[in-house]
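agent: user wants the full assembly modeled, not chains individually. Plan: 1) parse entity lines 2) check alphabet per entity 3) run joint structure prediction 4) return tokens. Steps 1-2 passed, two entities, 700 residues total. Proceeding.
--- entities ---
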Amino acid sequence: MDLPPLQAQPRRARLFLRAATAGRPKLRILIVEDDVEAARYMADDLAGFGLEVTVVHDGVAAAAPGVGDGDYDVLILDRMLPSCDGLTLLRQLRARGVETPALFLTAMGAVADRVAGLEGGGDDYVVKPVDSVELHARIQALARRRVRPAAEASLLVCGDLELDRLNRAARRGGEAIALLPLEYRLLEVLMLARGQTVTRKMLLEQVWNFRFDPRTNIVETHICRLRAKVDGAGRAPLIRTIRGSGYLLAES
Amino acid sequence: MAGGPAMRRLWRRTGVRLLALQAAALILAFGLTGAFARISIERLAEQGMRADVAGETRSLDDEWRRKGAGHLPYTIAKRQRLWHGFEYGLASPAGAGLGGAPQLAALQREGWSTARTATGAVLAYTERLPDGGWLTVGRNLANEQRQLDALTGLLALSGAAGVAICLTTAWLATRWTWGRVDQLSATAAQVAEGRLDVRAPVGRRASSDELDELSLAFNQMLDRIGRLIDELRRVTTDVAHDMRRPLNRVRQKLERLARATEQTPAVAEEVRRLEVDFLEIIHTFDALLQLAEIEGRLRPQSRVDLAAVAERVAEALRPDIEESGRSLETRLEAAAVAGDTDLLAQALANLLENALRHTPEGSRIAVEVQSGDAPRLLVRDDGPGIPAALRERALAPFGRLEASRTTPGSGLGLAIAASVATRHGGRLELGDAGPGLEVAIAFPPGAA
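--- prediction returned ---
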């Protein structure tokens, strides 16, 4: 098995970091996880998605200069670590001015834990177990937030599909598509992440504001209806289904 | 009477009836003491008066013996003018009035009597003079009566003041006790709401009484419960943590297995089924942990627009419900409650999911928000319903009924909805929609 190195990468020049973020092909990820086997699998899976992964097994090591504050696009932190938990680690890093987006990947799943994690400087909070598609999609979403800021253009474009966010209107090949409010929101989320996977769970959170999984087909049904409007009538399909319950909007 | 229920409530309180009884006894005791005092003072006054009258009579008798019968009318007239509070009556042996008040002169029978003269009621003593004449000396009662009346008034006044002081003191003491008992019940109510950090107030050790002891015991109980719950929470967290790690690895390995077996469809299908089972386990695991978490949480305080939550969840699930051949209607009245939006949304989603799962095709499902002092959020269907005898069991965790054993679901959906209702101070009610099932989250009065 092809495993990435387990030691911290040497510190890189910050200048290079900032300049390279947008154009660089590979996202650089730091995983702080004490479960050695899980970390290895995770690193391997993410490397399979074309990410450059560094793994550290405890919080103190991650807090050391040149590690947590290194040249990374996203930090993945466990909450319960030997010697120094992930929340303390992130607080220390944030106090030192590290603004790298951080994702907590943890076994602590209570609402209070989630709130503490997000208020403590975390940008996303995922409870174990998680599959690699979900993890990768969330890493991409965090990295995207840095490269394409939230105050994005009022017009989103993907091929011949346009989303006019000022007038909340969609057009495909210049032809208007009538969307219900939920369908509009769904398409907006997919278009903001165009070219990248958005998982069912992310859609539930971002479109419906549900932090739980209603065990029905609400995402599938809405995607199906949206697809009929956007991709229907013999047009080239833009909305694709990704195995592992995710969706992706991109030109074929 | 507007104060009726309040008075009844007051009457039910411990100590009020005791206080009333005490008041009655006190008034009776004061009344009796006053009456005895008055009677004995009256008797003493009368005795004194009789002694005075007897002395005056003896003095006049002496006068008669020393100076003769002819002199007595002058003496009487003189003493009457000087007015020592006595009145006189003198009659000849034949019965003719010789001086003094005619009413007293008319008394011609030896011994004590009462009479009425121009100055009022008089206590009189009549004696026969040695010559057979009649001498009567009387003492006006009006003065004594006034003194006695004043004394009675004073007695009544001090009695009333005494009763009032006693009752006020008792009332204040009782009120003070009530205040402490109220503090204790307020603390208990907060504990019932899920707060284990509150403690009942305990007085200084030196003056501790049985209420302090009760508070102390109550606090010790809370400490113990707090420790147990902390322990339980810690164990739950540890178990969750210890299980999530291997579960996470299983998931990673399953994924790898799925990728590795893509080329052999039969094995790939087995792996896919394994993944479905695995997700089912995770779902139940999450639901169980969540159930424990909701029950341990505080009652949420932020304002939630029930209609907005119901609208959001109903619209999210509408396509699913409609595409499954059922219909969904909403009747949403504006109602706000103190609550947790996420929990309420999940509870409603669970209820709708249940309705979707346990009704036949063609069923009609309705979501309603009823406003009012005690708002209700309810889901109604016209499916088979749940017989009244089985409803209790349907609400228990894993309380799946035989009829639904074969349908998918963790059996925790209703239990979570019920615990969400409880966390909001309300309850989950299962009822008959005639035909069908009506499940309502009933918020407590005053929740709006």
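agent: reporting back. The domain at 300-442 of chain B is CATH 3.30.565.10 (Heat Shock Protein 90). Chain B touches chain A through 39 residues (CB under 8 Å).
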